[in-house]
Amino acid sequence: MKKYEVILQDLEKKIKNGSYPPNSLLPSENEMTSLYGASRATVRQALKVLADNGMVHRRHGFGSIVIPQEKLLFPVTGLISFKELQETLGFEAETDVLYFEPVVINRELSALTTFPIGTQAYHVLRRRKIEGKYAILDRDFFICDVAEGLSAEHAKASIYDYLEKELQLDIAYAQKGITIDLVTDDDKKFLDLEPLDRHVVSVKSVVYLQDNRPFQYTESHYQVDKFRFSEFARRQKA
After folding, report:
1. DSSP string covering 83-141, please?
2. Does 236 reside within a domain?
3. For labelling, which of 9, 43, 132, 223 has a CA lying 20 to 30 Å from the CA of 180?
């Protein structure tokens, strides 16, 4: 792990646990260079990432101000695994693997995933329990030739950990769409919906490798009243 990442991780942790409460100032850059034994450039790199992630607002000549965070505020943009999101936001969660089987992409699945007809893929269905309630249902398709050796055990722990750390895949970007959809039979069966729940937030993504090959299709259904989806936007000065 690079030095700026160590600093970034520590600052994120302290913001999440309240050591640096909302609207407070972080230590100055000079204080951080002494605190972490790092150069000013390294400290600034960590603060830039923290600001880009919407956790602090940096004011020239004043310092870095902690932006109030919401516990279950899910980012719209960015490409982050559920495990990474859990660690960042600090909520308790469990993952159940409901289905893990190889499939052959047919015409209907090709239209959904963008994978060519005849492609072999892993079909994975998982549900996420957050703070005691099943609130997310994730359906994924991974191309077998890319996600070679993927297993249900990887799906329960972290698929991206396996893909990036063991297979050394370079995951680059995703195209996402967000809609409000009617609940499905699977939503009713696997999620802890309220009696009057009729809709879920549906996030559909096609994920690409660095060489622009699509290798994953994901459709995630979120219980409407459990999450708020937000994008942190910063105006770029001309």
Report:
1. HHHHHHHT--EEEEEEEEEEEE--HHHHHHH-PPTT-EEEEEEEEEEETTEEEEEEEEE
2. no
3. 132
